[in-house]
Amino acid sequence: MTRSFEQARILMYSHDTFGLGHLRRCRTIAHALVEEYRGLNVLIISGATIAGAFDYRARVDFVKIPSVIKLRNGEYTSLERHIDLEDTLNMRRSIIRHTAETFKPDIFIIDKEPMGLGGEVEETLAYLKGRGTKLILGLREVMDAPHLLEAEWKRKDVMQKIEKFYDDIWVYGPPDFYDPLVGLDVPTPVRDKMNFVGFLQRSAPHQDRSLHQPDGDYILVTTGGGGDGADLVEDVIQAYQQDPTLTHKALIVLGPYMPAEQRTTFAKKGAAIPYIEVIEFDTRMEELIASSKAVVAMGGYNTYCEILSFDKPALIIPRVMPREEQLIRATRAAELGLIDMLRPEESRDPKRLAAALKALPSRLPPSSNNAGLHLEGLSNIARMVGCELARRELIPAVTEEAR
What we know:
The protein has 403 residues and is an alpha/beta fold. Helix content is 39%, strand content 17%. It has helices at residues 21-36, 85-103, 122-130, 146-156, 158-165, 188-192, 230-242, 260-271, 285-290, 301-309, 325-335, 344-347, 350-359, 377-402, and strands spanning 3-4, 9-14, 37-38, 41-46, 60-64, 68-70, 76-78, 107-111, 134-140, 168-172, 194-196, 219-222, 250-253, 276-279, 294-297, 314-316, 340-341. The protein has a 7-stranded parallel sheet with strand order 5-4-2-8-9-10-11, sandwiched between helices. α6 links the parallel β10 (168-172) and β11. α2 (85-103) packs parallel to α3 (122-130), α7 (230-242) runs parallel beside α8 and α7 packs across α13 (350-359).
C-alpha cells in the first residue's frame, strides 16, 4: 500500500569514477522508494559522465559533479586533463556541501565510499549530522579482498569515521552469501549498525522492446561500463573465430566507457562473424538481460543482481585487478551453483571458452540450484525508510505535547 510522505527528501551520493555500478544501484533504490511513497523526493549526486543518458522517474533527479576517472592502476585523474585533480575534488566537495544545504534531506545515503572520493563528503556528513539528518552507508555485499580493503581503510582511518558519523549500514546482500567486512577488525558499534538487506531485485519496466534486442534466442555479452571490458570481448570474439561449431547468436554490449579505438576494432571484428552483433551501449540493460537466453559478464554487482532477478544461466569471467570484488563474488556464486565461472587466464583459451559458451544456453538457471536467492533488498530498504520517515513525522507532534 502506497503511503504519502509529503515533502520528505532523500539525498544519495554516488562517486562514479570508473563504471556505472554506483549510479545504477542508486537509481534502482531511488525508483523503488518513490514508487512506494507518494510525496517523497530523491536527489542523486553523481560523478558519472553519462548520468543524463538514463531515464528517471518522477520525483527522482540528479546533480552532476565534475567527473574523475579511476585508472587501471587504481589511481585517479580528472576527466578534463587540463584541470588539476585537487581542483576538481574541491569543486566536487563544494557542490556536494551546497546541494546538502539547499536540499535539506531527511536521509543521506552514501554508496560504497564511506567518506566519498578523497574524503569529499566528510564535511557534508558532519554538517548533516549536526542538523539531525539520518546518515546511511550502503555497501556492496563484496567490497574487495580483506587485506586490500583493510590497508586502504586503515590508511584513511575509515572505520573510526564510520563509527563517528553513520547511523546505519545497509549491506546489499544476504549474510549467508558474503560479509563485506570479513577479515577486518570491526569495532562492535560498527558491526551493530550493519543490516544485511538482501540483493536488489531488478525489473524490466518497459513494455516495448529495446531497439537493440535481436530476434530469437541470443546470448548477451556485457562488460558493464566497459572501461576494462576489452579482454572479455576479445576472448569471446576469438572463441567464435576459432570454433566454427559455435553458432549461437551473441549480442555484445561494449559499454560507454570503452575507449573509442577499441569499440571501432570490435565492431569491425564482430561484423565479420555472422553470429555476432556488437553495439556500444543501451541504457535499458534490464530488458536485454530479461529477453536473453543466457548472460556472459564480468560479474559486477548490478549485472549479478540482474542475472538472479531474471533467473538467467550465466558465465562469469571476473576482473581480478585492481580490485578482487568480482572474483570473490563469482567464486562464491559458483560454489553455490548459481553461475559458471572462468578465470581470465582460462577464458583466453578459445577452445575452452567456446565449450563453455556452447554449454551455457542449456545450463539450468540459478533458481534450480538455490531457491533462496534473497532478492528482498528493495522491499527491506523501503520498509526501513518508511519507519524513519514516520518517526520524523512524529517528532514535532511529540515535542508539542510535551510543552
